[in-house]
Specification:
Layout (H helix, E strand, L loop, with lengths): L1 H24 L4 H27 L4 H20 L8 H24 L11 H4 L6 H17 L4 H13 L3 H14 L4 H14 L7 H12 L4 H13 L3 H12 L7 H17 L23 E7 L1 H4 L7 E8 L8 E6 L5 E5 L17 E8 L11 E4 L10 E5 L5
Amino acid sequence: MTPFLTLAALLVAVVLVSLLLPLLVRTRGRSRASVAASNAAIYVEQLADLDAELSAGTISREQWEASRTEIQRRALEEEARPEAARPGRSIVAAVAIAIAIPALAIGLYAWRGNPQALSPQASAAKDQAHAITPDQIQGMITRLAARLESSPDDAEGWVMLARSYGALGRFSESASAFAKAAKLRPDDAQLLADYADSLAMANNRSLAGEPTAIIERALKADGKNAKALALAGTAAFDRRDYRGAVGYWQKLLEQVPAESEFGQSIRTAIADAERNLSGGASSAPAPLAGREAAKAGGSSLQGKISLAPAVASTAKPDDAVFIFARPAEGSRAPLAIMRVQVKDLPFDFSLDDSMAMDPSMKLSGFPRLVVVARLSKSGSATLQKGDIETVSKPISPGTKGIRIEITPAKG
C-alpha cells in the first residue's frame, strides 16, 4: 500500500507543479507574487497533509471532507478581498487547481480503481506490527491542542482534547480541557459528569470537593443523566451518606434493563449501602464506579491482558502497556484506549464509549472490532523499536471474556 500511495502522491505533485508554475509566475508584482505563492504553498501543504491523514486512517472521510471544505472557504475569502488587498486571480486559480486535482484523482480511483486494495486487510499480515501508530495519536492531540489555542471558543474541540488526554491517563490535562469546555457549555450535563470524573481521577480517584460540586451542577442541568447519578451515588457512599447513595442509584436503576449486567451492578451497590444503613458489614469491595455508567449500552469490551513468560522475563514492572480497540475493517484510528503497567498484569480491562477520543467514533458505531495490547518499554505513546503487541481476532461490541496474551513478535 505505501509504495502505491507514494507513487500516486508523486505523480499528483508533478501534475500540480506543471499546472501551477505558469499561473504563479504570471502573478503581477514581485511583492504580490511572493505573498500569493506563500498562500498557495500553505494551501497545497494543508491539502497534502489532509490526504496523508486520510490515507493513514487518522481521520474519517467525513472529517477529510469538512477540512477540505474549510480550505476551499478560505480560498474563496481570498478571492472576495478588494483588488488592492488580495493576490492576483491566477493565485486563486492555482488554489482551485490544487484542490480539484487531488479530489478528482481520488474520485476517479474510487469509481474505476480498486479501493479495497488499500484496506488494512490487504496488508495486515505484513504490517500487523504497525496496525496503529501511537505517534499518530500523539500527533493528533498536539495538533488539536495547538488549534484550540487559536480557537478557544470551540467547545467540541476542548471535549475531544479532554477525552484524548483521559484515554492516555493524563487526567490533570484532561480535567483542564474539560474545564474550558464547561465554561462554554455550562448546562451540558454529560460534559459536566465527564469533567467531574476526570477531575476525580486526577485527584487520586476522590470525588470529594470540587468533583462533587460539578456533579451537582450536572444533575441540576439533567436530573436523569446516568453518569451523573452513578457518580453522585459513589460520592455519597464515600462520605457515608448511604441513604443518599441509595436514592441516587435507585433513580439510575429505573433507566436500565433490570436483568442487564449494569442493572445487577447497581443493585449490588444499593444492597451494600443498605447493609451499611442497618449496621451490617460491607461485602462489596467497592460501590458503583463512575465509568460503569458508560456500559449501560452494552457496547463495552471486557477481558484480561497477560504477558507470555518469554516477554515477562525481560519486562520491567514499570514498563507501559497500552490497550486499545479499533475497527476491524477500514480506519485504524483508536476508538478507546487505556494505559497500565506491567506490574498491573494480568489486568482485567474494560473499554467503552466513554473513552472515545472522538465523539463521532465510538465502539458502538462499528460492527466488528479488534483489541490491541502493546508493551512499550520506553513508556512513550510513540511507537519505538522493541515494542511488542498482540492483536485479537475480530469481535463484536459488547464482547466479554476476551483473552489476550502479549507474545514475542515472530520473525
